[in-house]
Structures are given as C-alpha cells and as structure tokens.
Design goal:
This protein has helices at 3-17, 31-41, 46-54, 61-79; strands spanning 20-27, 89-106, 112-127. By secondary structure, the chain is α+β, with helices and mostly antiparallel strands. The chain has a single domain, classed as Ribosomal protein L22/L17 (Ribosomal Protein L22, Chain A). A 3-stranded antiparallel β-sheet has the order 1-3-2. Helix 3 runs antiparallel to helix 4.
Length: 132
C-alpha cells in the first residue's frame, strides 16, 4: 500500500472512531422494499423509531430494528453509559444493494425465466443532535 493510501486509510479509521454506526449485511430482501421502511425512521429519535418499527406491518422492519439496536449498543459501548430518552437520533440511514442470486424458473414451451433473488446492506448512524 502506498503512503497516500495509508494516510487516507488512517484518516478514515480516525473518523470512524467518533461516529456510532452499525451495518447489517446480506439481508435477504430487495433494497426497494427495505427503503420503504428506512424512509419511515430517517431523522427520528431512537425510542420513537424503535416503536415505529415494532408496530410496522412490513417484514423488513425487523431487520432495520436489529441494525438500529446494534447502533445504539455501539454508542453506549463507546461512551461507557446508557442512552437517555430523547438523547439519540438516527442521523443517517441508507440501504445499499447486496449480491443477487440468479435462479431459473421453468416456463412454457421448454423455456426458462430468470429469477433474481436480491439482497441488501443496511447502514445506520446514530448520534446526538449537537454532534450531527
């Protein structure tokens, strides 16, 4: 690794130490379905977001809740204290496309239709309002 890349990597590492986030990878659902749920809680206070996810009818909300709880636990671990009510907010949350499994489905007249089983990665950042 060159000197410039090493310096950039060290800067990225230092920046990650001050941010509180969780990444849930390879969730077996399409990114489009997951983004509907993620858009519900963007910018919300953490306890309110957890309540919204718990009572959502979407199946994807369970995976988003898991990632959010992990991000809150990471914040508590790095700060050596429990989060108080109304202190933490979802500062950034986004969904990236993961790998796609390609499968074949039998079709009429000897053909085969392709089925794409998509997956996604969820990234959740939490923080206080002052530390956006």
């Amino acid at each position: 690794m060159g000197k410039r890349k090493r310096i950039a990597a060290e800067n990225r590492k230092a920046a990650n130490k001050t941010q509180y986030f969780a990444i849930l990878r390879n969730v077996p659902s399409s990114p489009r379905k997951m983004r509907y749920v993620v858009d519900l809680i963007r910018g919300m206070e953490v306890n309110r977001a957890l309540g919204t996810l718990q009572f959502s009818k979407k199946a994807a909300s369970a995976d988003v809740e898991k990632a959010l709880r992990s991000a809150v636990a990471n914040w508590e671990q790095k700060n050596d204290r429990k989060a108080e009510d109304g202190e933490l907010f979802v500062t950034r949350i986004f969904v990236d496309e993961g790998f796609t499994l390609k499968r074949m489905r039998p079709a009429p007249q000897g053909r085969g239709y392709r089925i794409r089983k998509r997956s996604n990665h969820i990234t959740v950042f939490v923080g206080t309002k002052t530390n956006d």
